[in-house]
Specification:
12-stranded mixed sheet; Aminopeptidase; single chain; 29% strand; alpha+beta; 281 residues
Length: 281
């Protein structure tokens, strides 16, 4: 039997505008990939973004690096993407994105890639477009962008957040590469902190910015300060500053079982606009 040629291809710099148009169809869900496109990944990391064209029109994408992120993909697209990446298991740590697309992609890949370490099937995707101050939410004046000389203060907080979320440390042995990644976020003004007595007690990062939309990640409050009513003004201050300096549309996604975080984000002005899933490998 002849095998049908897979129509998926690696995108090049010439495809950038078409790829951004695909991302813009649902920007809160696709801002991660849109940001990487604007950062020039099609030139600096060729082969990282796969695309499927139908009758000349770019229909869908799949970010294919340390994680897989489907973008605007229907069942047929996902079958093609899965066939293309099936042999890449050892390069991939997770699959994440819109819940329906992730579930379908995992259905195709699970027989070869499973079992997963964990499947977070319902992670509400939340969006805010109003300044928290305009909603009457108090802002914590201590929140500010971290400075590059504070990277070694940020690192323990970031590592604690990562391990609590993912279930294993972000690095083993030397933390040099992890430190470099944190420093890059700080250098771009994308890490917000509160520092007290020489320690970071709160942090949040802007993981992606594209087309007027920003996505927050890495939100962490020191355990001994939780449950004291601090989270709402802290997050409100981050969102206020991001809206004033980065993008007027702010998004994030959160585990459905993290009811306290969801309540905090709702009080800050976020609303549910979709559902993400993450498959941890």
């Amino acid at each position: 039997m002849l095998r049908t040629r897979n129509p998926v291809h690696a995108l090049t710099a010439a495809d950038r505008d078409d790829a951004l148009e695909v991302c813009a169809r649902n920007l809160p869900a696709n801002v991660f990939v849109a940001a990487r496109l604007l950062e020039g990944v099609l030139t600096t990391q060729p082969g990282t973004v796969l695309g499927h064209r139908v009758d000349g029109r770019l229909q869908s994408l799949c970010w294919s690096s340390a994680n897989l992120v489907p973008v605007e993909a229907d069942e047929a697209d996902i079958a093609f993407f899965a066939d293309r990446v099936r042999r890449w298991r050892r390069h991939c740590a997770s699959i994440l994105g819109p819940a329906d697309q992730v579930a379908e992609l995992w259905r195709h890949l699970a027989p070869a890639w499973g079992p997963a370490r964990a499947v977070r099937a319902d992670q509400p995707l939340m969006s805010a477009m109003d300044l928290p101050s305009s909603l009457g939410v108090d802002l914590d004046p201590r929140v500010r962008p971290a400075t590059t000389d504070e990277v070694d203060l940020v690192m323990p907080a970031a590592a604690h957040m990562f391990e609590g979320e993912i279930g294993y440390p972000p690095y083993s042995g030397s933390g040099a590469a992890y430190r470099t990644a944190l420093l890059a976020l700080i250098d771009r003004g994308h890490t917000f902190v509160v520092v007290e007595d020489g320690a970071v007690i709160f942090k949040a990062d802007v993981g992606s910015v594209a087309l007027g939309c920003a996505q927050l990640q890495g939100v962490w409050l020191a355990p001994h300060l939780r449950g004291q009513g601090l989270a709402v003004p802290l997050m409100a201050s981050v969102v206020e500053q991001v809206m004033a300096t980065r993008a007027k549309w702010v998004t994030l996604y959160v585990n459905d079982f993290n009811t306290s975080a969801r309540a905090t984000y709702t009080k800050v002005g976020f609303e549910d606009v979709g559902s993400f899933s993450t498959v941890l490998l």
